Amino acid sequence: MSFRLAAYALCIEDGQVLLARHTPPSGGFIWTLPGGRVEHGEDPFDTVTRELAEETGCHGIVERLLGVDSRVIPAAAARAGTEHQNVGIFYGVHITGGHLRPEPNGNTAESVWTPIPDVEGLRRSSLVDIGLTLAQTLPATGHVAPVPVGGLIQH
Predict the structure, then answer these.
(1) 43-81 tens-digit pLDDT
(2) What pLDDT, on a 0 to 100 scale, did the predictor assign at position 43?
(3) Distance between start and end Cα atoms, the chain
(4) What is the CATH number of domain 2-147?
(5) Which of 4, 49, 60, 62, CA to CA, is 20 to 30 A from 13?
(6) What are the sequence ranges of the domains in the chain?
(7) Mean pLDDT in the chain?
C-alpha cells in the first residue's frame, strides 16, 4: 500500500469556492481543491499555502483547521495500481493576493471561482465534497463520514 500525507486549501468567497482543474499525464481532467503532498520535514500548515501559490498563483493565509480525512483508495481506482491511503488535512484559507494562472510545469491547467451550488454538476475529486462538508458543518471532531465515490465524484 502506498501512503500520502497532503494539505488542502478550501477558499470560499462570496458563495464561491476556488477549484483547480487537475490534468494528469494520463489525460482527462478532474476538479479538485488546491493542495498537495507534505514534503519531508515540512509543516502541513506551510504546505497548504505553498501548494496554493504553486497551483493557482494566489497567496493566502490560513484562517482555521477544518479537519482531517483518511481514506483508502482501492487498487483498481488508484493511479499507482496498488491500494493507496491518503491522509488529507483541510484548512480554511483566505486569499490575500496574487492572480489566478495555470501551474507552471505542473498538472493544474487552470483555477476558477465556482458558485458552490454548481459544484454538484462537476466531475470532481471526493476531496471537494469533503472540504465543503467540513466548512459547512465545522464538526467538533474535525471528521466527516466517508463521501461515496461514483458518477461525477472520483478518487
Answers:
(1) 999 999 999 999 999 999 999 999 999 988 887 776 667
(2) 98
(3) 16
(4) 3.90.79.10
(5) 4
(6) 2-147
(7) 93
Q: What does the block give as the cell for 134? A: 467540513
The C-alpha torsion from 103 through 88 and 124 to 95, rounded to 10°, is -50
Q: Which residue has the cell 501551474?
A: 103
97's grid cell: 493576493
Question: Residue 75, CB half-sphere, CA atoms under 13 Å: how many?
Answer: 4
pTM (2 d.p.): 0.92
| The 3-state secondary structure of the chain, one letter per residue | CEEEEEEEEECEECCEEEEEEECCCCCCCEEECCEEECCCCCCHHHHHHHHHHHHHCEEEEEEEEEEEEEEEECCCCCCCCCCEEEEEEEEEEEEEEECCCCCCCCCEEEEEEEEHHHHHHCCEEHHHHHHHHHHHHCCCCCCCCCCCCECCEEC
